[in-house]
């Protein structure tokens, strides 16, 4: 069975730094994505050297300083809680770089990695650079902050996006997939979902399934969980009374988001 749901397992990395999640090819069915979620106390510092990986550092909550030794971005981050529903700042760093993150306040940071062999430029992705979309209608409404969309030339492989879904709505819906290297019809992209709920004790349901149903898992997802989508359709249902946030990381052989809707459910798009 493919393991898809990961609960946070706090691990102290250094004084003031707690690793909440670490998803990688050694513990998940992924080739193109690695993910770390870290909690930092004010004044703590996280340092890392990149090999043949690029990284997008998302200031999920709180304020941080990021430097690659040549460029320094001071006091980035815009919110205390993701459910303020405002975009945040991120930093893209390319391969074979060293970087430091210093927490200016208590902060939660998500590190999104993908293998790469292209040298790109360290770039601050300001909150104001995020494109904002409102997708869907009826009970399929969600708010989207595009941090690293496929139209951005900043990254080599990474795509990063935030999605907010109000209670009683469905997201990543109708069910769609992107697991075939068959452009222009469909691209092959792995995906991870980092989930938060408001209020925190809430839950959502996420199903991951393939056409042949050899993979077909429906999971109750709680605050801080990560869901891995190596292939298949992957809709999210949000119960009434609770709002959903998730951060998506996608990566694959080609940096293009071209999805394919489940033909059994595509009809809902054509309702009047």
From TrEMBL:
InterPro entries: Deoxy-glucuronate_isom_IolB, IolB_Bacilli, KduI/IolB_isomerase, RmlC-like_jellyroll, RmlC_Cupin_sf. Its EC number is 5.3.1.30. It comes from the Bacteria. SUPFAM superfamilies: RmlC-like cupins (SSF51182). Pathway: Polyol metabolism; myo-inositol degradation into acetyl-CoA; acetyl-CoA from myo-inositol: step 4/7. It catalyses: 5-deoxy-D-glucuronate = 5-dehydro-2-deoxy-D-gluconate. Keywords: Isomerase. Coiled coil: none annotated. One of its GO terms (molecular function) is 5-deoxy-D-glucuronate isomerase activity. Signal peptide: none annotated. GO terms for biological process: inositol catabolic process. Pfam families: KduI. The keyword Isomerase applies. It is an enzyme of class 5 (isomerase). The keyword Isomerase applies. Transmembrane segments: none annotated. Belongs to the isomerase IolB family. Involved in the isomerization of 5-deoxy-glucuronate (5DG) to 5-dehydro-2-deoxy-D-gluconate (DKG or 2-deoxy-5-keto-D-gluconate). PANTHER family: 5-DEOXY-GLUCURONATE ISOMERASE. This is 5-deoxy-glucuronate isomerase. It comes from Enterococcus ureilyticus. The lineage of its organism: Bacteria, Bacillati, Bacillota, Bacilli, Lactobacillales. The gene is iolB.
């Amino acid at each position: 069975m493919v393991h898809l749901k990961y609960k946070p397992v706090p691990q102290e990395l250094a004084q003031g730094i707690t690793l909440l999640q670490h998803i990688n090819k050694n513990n998940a069915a992924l080739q193109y994505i690695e993910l770390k979620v870290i909690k930092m106390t004010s004044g703590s510092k996280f340092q890392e050297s990149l090999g043949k990986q690029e990284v997008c550092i998302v200031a999920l909550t709180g304020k941080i300083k990021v430097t690659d030794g040549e460029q320094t971005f001071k006091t980035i981050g815009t919110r205390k809680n993701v459910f303020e529903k405002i975009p945040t700042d991120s930093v893209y760093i390319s391969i074979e770089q060293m970087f430091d993150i210093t927490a200016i306040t208590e902060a939660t940071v998500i590190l999104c990695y993908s293998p790469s062999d292209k040298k790109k430029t360290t770039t601050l992705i300001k909150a104001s650079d995020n494109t904002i979309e409102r997708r869907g209608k009826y009970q399929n409404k969600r708010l989207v902050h595009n941090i690293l969309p496929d139209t951005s030339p900043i990254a080599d492989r990474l795509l990063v996006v935030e999605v907010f879904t109000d209670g009683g709505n469905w997201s990543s819906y109708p069910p769609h997939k992107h697991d075939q290297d068959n452009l222009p019809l469909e691209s092959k992209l792995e995906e991870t979902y980092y989930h938060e709920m408001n209020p925190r004790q809430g839950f959502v349901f996420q199903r991951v399934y393939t056409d042949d149903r050899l993979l077909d898992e429906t999971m109750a997802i709680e605050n801080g969980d990560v869901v891995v989508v190596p292939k298949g359709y992957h809709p999210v249902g949000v119960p009434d009374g609770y709002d959903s946030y998730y951060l998506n990381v996608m990566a694959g052989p080609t940096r293009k988001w071209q999805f394919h809707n489940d033909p059994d459910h595509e009809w809902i798009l054509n309702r009047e």
